[in-house]
Amino acid sequence: MFETIAIAAKPHAQNINEILTATCNWLLEHGVTVRIEDRIGHLVGVPVERMPRKEMLRGADLVIVFGGDGTFISVANAALKLDVPMLGVNVGSLGFLTEVTLDEHYESLSAILDGKYRIDERIAITAKVISASSQPRHFLAVNDFVINKEAIARMVDIRTYVDGVSVSRYRGDGLIVSTPTGSTAYSLAAGGPIVYPTLGVFVLSPICPHTLTNRPIVVPDHVTVKTRLYSKGQVVNLTIDGQEAIPLLDGDEVIITKAKEKLRLVQTLDTDYYSILRKKLSWGRNLGQE
Question: Is the entire prediction scored with pTM above 0.90?
Answer without folding.
Answer: yes
